[in-house]
Amino acid sequence: MQKLLGKQNEEICRVIEYTVNTLVPVLAATKQELDNCLNSLAGGFVPPGPSGAPTRGMADILPTGRNFYSVDPQAVPSRAAWQVGRSLADALLERYRQAVPSCVRPVQSSSAW
């Protein structure tokens, strides 16, 4: 590091150590994703692992291709956020019912991803 940068930088050293010792090995293990997918389709065991998205900076879920065993706490809204969302949805549905009186109940959908 000293030779490359001309000085020692502890933060850069920690990032490099994390990358070399943690990220590279788990990224190399992502090749198991296809094997585990095919194994699951054949009725075989798929090893468990945490859920989440590596694209959101969650490197701890790597390697991918495992059976999710937990809920991603960063993706689940807090009780307060859920209450705000519910209030907004209720208000939207009420405005729709007023705008379209013949509609008893509009179609509702949700996404779990």
How many beta-strand elements? 2
Please compute the radius of gyration using only Cα atoms: 23 Å
The dominant shape is flat
Largest sheet: 2 strands, parallel
Summing up helix and strand content along with how strands pair, one would put the structural category as mainly alpha
Strand arrangement across the biggest beta sheet: 1-2
| Count of individual helical segments | 4
N-to-C series of helices and strands: HHHEEH
Summarize the amount of helix as a percent range.
Answer: 40-55%
List the uncertain runs: none
Strand fraction equals: under 5%
Termini gap: 42 Å
Overall average pLDDT = 80
Short description:
The chain is mostly helical and 113 residues long. The chain has helices at residues 2-5, 10-28, 32-41, 79-99; strands spanning 48-49, 67-68. The protein is flat, with a radius of gyration of 23 Å.
